Fold these 3 entries.
Entry 1:
Amino acid sequence: MQTPQKIAVVGSGLVGTLLAIYLKRAGHIVHVYDRSPDIRTVEFSGRSINLVMSNRGWKALEDVGLDEEIRKIGIPVDKRAIHLQDGNLNYQYYGKEGEAIFSLSRGVLNRKMVDLAEAEGVEFFFERKIWDVTLATATLWEGETEQGDWTELKYDKVFGADGAFSRIRHRMQRQSMFDYSQEFMKIGYKELHIPANADGSPKIDIHSLHIWPRGNFMLMGLANLDNSFTCTLFMPIEGENSFESLTNEEKLVSFFANYFPDTKDVIPDLVRDFFRNPNSYLAIMKCFPWTFNDKIALIGDSAHAIVPFYGHGMNAGFEDITILNELMQQYGDDWDRIFKEYEISRKPNADAIAELSRRNFEEMSAKTADANFLLQKKIEKWFSDKHPEKWMPLYSRVTFSLQPYSEAMAIGDFQNEIMQEVLKMDNIQENWNSEEVENKILELLE
């Protein structure tokens, strides 16, 4: 336990609520502010990508004994189901037998997390707009409008967990020596929906991440508890085969008939969903430092917003909390040191998962249907099964281990260089699992 302090968390999303639970358990008074209504009272649809929980996220939940509660609302997903344009379906297993990520509805999970935080004694203040913060005194400024009168709210510490467009970070950006970058991808996304069958059964396999890879665009689907699927169409915002080009029902139906013919019977409300749901945009946001003295800290997307193609936005944010908690236990009341070591530890790993997530769009949208890529994955799995102490595939390092993201990326890049050499070997398609290939990889690993 630390000396109790009065702490504000701005943002009641997944990272903010879990952080609030950790701070409450450490003995602090914790208030969470959010400008939106209580998510438990809001219909949540039209702008979501289902989340996937992996080892890093589970670790943060296990450390406060909440993992079993969350497993009840998730669906294990152990493989990709690749829907090819010719109608064929290929399966690619993620890890070793028994290893799976968990599909979770963002809305269902967020509501659950708020319930769990309230049960711990965390106080929530919804529909309260925080416009600014005085960094030196951890004073929040709240008001109805940005130009109107503000009320001051004094705290000992403030955590900015208010997402990619954080008001807390906005104030920190106006300091000298604060680095900040924001990059929008040229790709947007739109939510679509596969309902369950009339008898409640699923139309497609619930234990797969479904991907329809089509080069520079793709469709993706993850199951919900009611056997429906939240689908996400990722595609360029402008140009040929883009959101800009699909202007009417005729063009949309023709586009799906051409590129996603096997969805005709499973997405009955395609036209309605497509034109009703908004286009959403994807940004990568980086900054440093993440803290100010012993008063202010950014966490989750407010410090490192990434794109969703590795499924690690939430997992990286939860891992921030794990590291912060370890430092709190190590250094007690020395918050200056806690904050300094927290940002130094997490920054290179946040940058690494941002880069890995960017790369994974290409893998999911194009490479998953590429013969050479599939052969590479087959060889990697075969060699990894024979020599688990010498080779763990990059996806497993990121998703099924707690190895720092920066280390996982560096080793993954090295392994990819080896695999590019292996793929050049004569008759590799026929001899992929031969002693010659095994020896070549062992030699290149030395």
Entry 2:
Amino acid sequence: MAATGDNSGSARSRAVSEVVDLVSSLIRFDTSNTGDPATTKGERECAEWVARQLEDAGYTTEYVESGLPGRGNVFARLPGADSSRGALLLHGHLDVVPAEAADWSVHPFSGAVQDGYVWGRGAIDMKDMVGMMLAVARQFKIEGTVPPRDLVFAFLADEENGGKWGSQWLVENRPDLFAGITEAVGEVGGFSLTVPRPDGGERRLYLVETAEKGLGWMRLRAKARAGHGSFLHEDNAVTILAAAVARLGTHTFPLVVSDSVAEFLAAVSEETGLAFDPGSKDIEGTLAKLGSISRIIGATLRDTANPTMLNAGYKANVIPQTAEAVVDCRVVPGRLAEFEREVDELIGPDVEREWVTKLDSYETTFDGHLVDAMNEAILAHDPHGRTVPYMLSGGTDAKAFADLGIRCFGFAPLRLPPELDFAALFHGVDERVPVDALEFGTDVLEHFLLHS
């Protein structure tokens, strides 16, 4: 049948009725990505389960292992009413970061549904969106719904390691899977941020990701003469490296306000009455008034270089010849050359650097038919909401798809309680997603796809 309107005010849809069970089931697959292919697990089993859910609804799926055994990806296409239009890609990753069970209130791979939440690693990064995609895809196929354009559903491996054995490999080796796709929607966007209004009321802003910083993992290496730990050593690789890491890790990069960030700040200023002056030395202090989300937004105002790993030495009384560190670098669009220049000045001539992983930044404009469809879908289910663009401080699989000329957004809609520290849940302990946020998001996603 032809695409129909949304379910606003009507009975619960098939997709809404099953989304919580789907997300809980997805979480029960331990798909921990350690960054080491030898110890990363669970992606194949989870991908095969996703394929079965799609096939049970009537889809023909394609299962692809991206370069290494077990790195499972699943693709399914739903033809639209006008296949001459560019197709829309909906993508979600199946891997998650590891979790230490002893630190959690519930087992991180239990998928427990309690206290109004679905709990577990991946609940918001990003098996919530995977579950919503799967629920809506199944409903469309079972009920014979024909969307306005072709939809391609992609369930991917290895996002948590930069997509080397997932989206990056697929784009380089299987570009045919993305033929005809012009736009894409993925994670870390569409969630609500509740802000106070000057009249004493509140407004829910739904943050649509239109940009993300460049992602780079940089290795630093210092070399010097090895020797006995009891001797005097002016030339010590550990000392040289440690000093360079300290300078870099404590450095504050200059304030840079990109177009997406400027639009976000203008919208928040309009709603709250707060003045976000890019020339102010205390713009971060003003941002802090927005609550926990300020950690994500604040990180989009500057480049960051955070040391995350150190490695040197093999015995207590031996000064090693080599010392190494890894630094997690996130770079504002258009800043890469200047960022590298600043890094070189900070680490000095005695420390070598190389990019272990280097993925470009991305930014698009907050306009066009797809943005209008996002806004209409939000307003259909939250008439007092407002969509606004923002930049993600991290990175997603969108970086790979942008290399194919696909226009990418983050839109995984969730209406969140104002008191929930959403930012802390990403890669955090007791990761969880509200049940009613999942149900809301599924309704919004269905409306969006029917009008995309």
Entry 3:
Amino acid sequence: MSITVKDVEHVASLARLELSEREKEQFTEQLNAILKYAEQLNALDTEGVEPTSHAMPLINVMREDAVRASLPIEKVLLNAPDEEEGQIKVPAVLE
């Protein structure tokens, strides 16, 4: 399988990119080099290798959920830029 200049132009069009002729040629060469390198993987003996979704086993490192008291509102409001009636006041973002 190889990439043509027409393929590069099609993808550039989908991505709304304007490429010069030199860039089209350059991307065609680079993408073909990537494909050629990837074809080398077909030469590897993968018999007996179990398919994986990750190279390393994933372990959940998050702590267990535990109910605990939150900060008192007075402490929270100390960090707020502005406060009104016990709530953080922010600038309006809608017109």
